[in-house]
Amino acid sequence: MKTDELTVNGVRIGGAGTKDEAETQTIDLPSGSRAEVRKGHGRDLMRAQRAAAGEDASAVIFALIAELTRVDGRRIVYEEVLEMDLADVLALQDEVMGENFDRPPRRASQASFNPDSQSRS
Asked: pTM for this one?
């Protein structure tokens, strides 16, 4: 078996570049480190939710940062995100949330009060 065919839990291990690597943003962190944040997928969110099991929603975001980010060329884990400088965490959070949670603009809400529709006694 070639190393580029080896997978663990559906994740390719080793081998040549993948499509995900082509969908990567590189950012310079305030600490001087360089981070690569790849586009996320449903499986990444599922792994992040498992890593943060029983914790609040912000823990899921930290775990998702760990899933999607390489810092200075190496993968990081959830616990490392917890120990990072706050400025770096905020920069990574902005990048991850901006890329993966960009939603279409909300529709303008309809007025719920219309004085003409009120019954008059």
From this structure: 0.65
CA end-to-end span of the chain, whole Å? 83
Mean per-residue pLDDT of the chain: 78
Q: What angle do CA 60, 61, 67 make, to 5 degrees?
A: 90
Tokens of 119: 């019954």
Which two tokens mark 88?
Answer: 């770096």
Q: Phi, psi at residue 13, to the nearest 5°?
A: -110, 125
Taking 70 as the pLDDT cut, the residues of the chain under it are: 1-22, 99-121
Torsion angles phi and psi, residue 25, rounded to 5 = -105, 135
Give the residue among 88, 80, 91, 96 at the shortest CA–CA distance from 39: 96
- Cross-strand bridge partners of residue 24: 38
DSSP the chain: --GGG-EETTEE-SSS--HHHHTEEEEE-TTS-EEEEEPP-HHHHHHHHHHTTTS-HHHHHHHHHHHHEEETTEE--HHHHHHS-HHHHHHHHHHHHHHHS--PPPPPPPPS--GGGS---
